[in-house]
Design brief:
The protein is an alpha+beta fold. The chain has a single domain, classed as SH3 type barrels (Roll), CATH 2.30.30. Helix content is about 25%, strand content about 35%. The protein has three helices and five strands, in the order ααβββαββ. The N terminus is likely disordered.
Length: about 110
């Protein structure tokens, strides 16, 4: 069993227990950059922070429901065809434990 102290030590520095104003400030700072978020249930996501509003942040991420070859071959009329095999996914602020910059290419 993981204790709260161990969990806090594993989280990136300065990302614990953010209120809504702090979330908005951090979103402004990392807008259009790659970030990693951890949800309250421990699920991790990585993507580019596309936008945010009062209650949600939106990431552009690879769509897990679209196989790579199917996305390349489909000729359907999608509303956002420029995203290709990617999708725009919304995450509610209340469900996010922490988020921080993510550098997948370093």
């Amino acid at each position: 069993m993981i204790t709260n102290n161990e969990r806090e030590a594993a989280e990136p520095q300065g990302t614990q227990a953010m209120n809504q104003n702090q979330m908005h400030e951090a979103c402004n700072q990392y807008l259009y950059q790659f970030i990693q978020i951890q949800m309250n249930d421990g699920t991790m996501y990585q993507g580019m922070l596309h936008s945010f509003d009062k209650d949600h942040m939106y990431l552009i991420m690879a769509n897990p429901n679209t196989p790579q070859n199917q996305a390349a071959q489909s000729n359907d009329n999608r509303f956002f065809p420029f995203f290709g095999p990617f999708g725009l996914f919304g995450f509610p602020f209340f469900g996010i434990r922490w988020f921080s910059p993510f550098f997948p290419f370093w």
